[in-house]
Amino acid sequence: MKFIETIVDVRYAETDQMGVVYHANYLVWFEIGRTKLIESLGFKYADMEAQGILSPVTDIQASYKKPLTYGQQAIIKTAIKEYSGIKVVYAYEIYNENHELCVTGISTHVCVKKENFRPISIKKYFPEWHNAYVNASSGS
């Protein structure tokens, strides 16, 4: 897997009363990383959505290893773990600025038609995305 990196400053509003990043904010950071990965491949979610296709999360998992706190930087590493032509599984690793692993996770997505939420073939609707995902998931 080839990971791309995105850095986010931990903001005060993202922490809880203990000064630790609130757990749900990691899911937002997963999305930031996923969006940057897609952009690094030359695409944008907004372009897909403009054509009536959505990419909902069908499963998400996070495993917390070490807390991040206000004032630190979160280094989000994102990769395509699996790609079937219909389903995409993204892998995430979030580190602090000392390169200590804080969170790992995966999210699973399918592309669906907005009007009926029926799955579509990415290869058929977006052949350029398909080719880029095949190359990225094979480590090329």
TrEMBL record:
- Matching Pfam families, A to Z? 4HBT_2 (PF13279)
Q: Which GO terms describe its molecular function?
A: fatty acyl-CoA hydrolase activity
Entry keywords, A to Z: Hydrolase
Q: Record's NCBIfam families?
A: YbgC/FadM family acyl-CoA thioesterase
Q: Which family does it belong to?
A: Belongs to the 4-hydroxybenzoyl-CoA thioesterase family.
UniProt name for this protein: Uncharacterized protein
Please name the source species: Fictibacillus arsenicus
